[in-house]
Design goal:
Blueprint (H helix, E strand, L loop, with lengths): L1 H5 L10 E6 L5 H13 L5 E7 L2 H4 L5 E4 L11 H22 L5 E4 L4 H10 L9 E3 L2 H15 L6 E2 L2 E3 L7 E3 L4 E4 L2 E4 H5 L2 H4 L2 H7 L1 H9 L5 H16 L7 E6 L12 E9 L2 E4 L7 H25 L3
Parallel strand pairs: 1-2, 3-4, 4-5
Antiparallel strand pairs: 6-9, 7-8, 9-10, 11-12, 12-13
Helix pairs in contact: 4-5, 4-12, 5-12, 6-9
GO molecular function, one term: L-malate dehydrogenase (NAD+) activity
Protein name: Malate dehydrogenase
Pfam families: Ldh_1_C (PF02866), Ldh_1_N (PF00056)
Length: about 325
């Protein structure tokens, strides 16, 4: 991720970059090694790299904050315990953003549970607009796009407008009812291109939902390269906008949405982006199959939010 940002893949080939790297005190020696490597890349756009373990240094005058770190779930850990640990982390980081960052800062939360962590950070930074906070579901979006592309035997760039609804968890809903596939120069609806409704409404969905776990099982580590690529895709689209007629998925503030999703959640929607501002794509028809799956993932997010609120009040 750092290499892609520093060489200009995210903010443009003419935008100088100052990277501020925040980590916990025991990791500072390792961070020094990362700094050396970045220096040794001799990247023309990279003006400075600042390693720190202090939030007041890390968040000072930021234009962009990418919150990658969170407490990982350990064996035998209850989801509630995981939420409790992350409430503390993201309350602290949200408050530091509120105090030190620019009010125009764009904040991307990656650390899981990403949606609820993002909501906590946003609520802890009352002077920064809620619209400036988003969480990463682009990895799920890219996974869905790639699965369809492989099935159709076309490059991933020939597949557009897949949607990830809801939570970045196994309840997420990868939806291809509005997806288009370019097959031999003709744009087809995904269901017409794939010609296998059973796969699209069954195995395809579960493959995307469970892909993170499958990667962990295979390599004993969570997604790294694909997650870094998704972070860069997400932030590049915020910075430069989405292509005409295309939308992408990201977790954004749900209040005021037209799909009946509960207010006051960070929920993944299809969005278009222009002038660094996202807008939920309205007017997409939702069938009963989709509605049930959208409702299920919303229910999980409501439960997470309410648990996090309870824990943050120290009750």
């Amino acid at each position: 991720m750092l290499f892609s940002i520093a060489k200009g893949d995210v903010f443009g080939k003419d935008q100088p970059i100052i990277l501020v790297l925040l980590d916990i005190p025991p990791m500072m020696t390792v961070l020094d090694g990362v700094v050396m490597e970045l220096q040794d890349c001799a990247l023309p756009l990279l003006k400075e790299v600042i390693p720190t373990d202090k939030e007041e240094v890390a968040f000072k005058d930021l234009d962009v904050a990418i919150l990658v770190g969170s407490m990982p779930r350990r064996d035998g850990m209850e989801r509630k315990d995981l939420l409790k640990a992350n409430v503390a982390i993201f309350k602290s980081q949200g408050a530091a953003l509120d105090k030190y960052a620019k009010k125009t800062v764009k904040v991307l939360v990656v650390g899981n549970p990403a949606n609820t962590n993002c909501l906590i950070a946003a609520k802890s930074a009352p002077s920064i607009p809620k619209e400036n906070f988003s969480c990463l579901t682009r990895l799920d979006h890219n996974r869905a796009r790639s699965q369809v592309a492989m099935r159709c035997g076309v490059p991933a760039s020939h597949v557009k407008n897949v949607i990830i609804w809801g939570n970045h968890s196994s309840t997420q809903y990868p939806d291809v009812h509005h997806c288009k596939v370019n097959m031999s120069g003709s744009e087809l609806a995904c269901f017409d291109a794939v010609k296998d409704d059973k796969w699209l409404t069954g195995e395809f969905i579960s493959t995307v939902q469970q892909r993170g776990a499958a990667v962990i099982k295979a390599r004993k580590l969570s997604s790294a390269m694909s997650a870094a690529k998704a972070i860069c895709d997400h932030m590049r689209d915020i910075w430069s906008g989405t292509a005409e007629g295309e939308f992408i998925s990201m977790g954004v503030y749900s209040t005021g949405n037209s799909y009946g999703v509960a207010e006051d959640l960070i929920y993944s929607f299809p969005v278009e982006i222009k002038n660094k501002t996202w807008k939920i794509v309205d007017g997409l028809t939702i069938n009963k199959f989709s509605q049930e799956k959208m409702d299920a993932t919303a229910a999980e997010l409501i439960e997470e939010r309410d648990t996090a609120s309870f824990l943050s009040e120290g009750q």
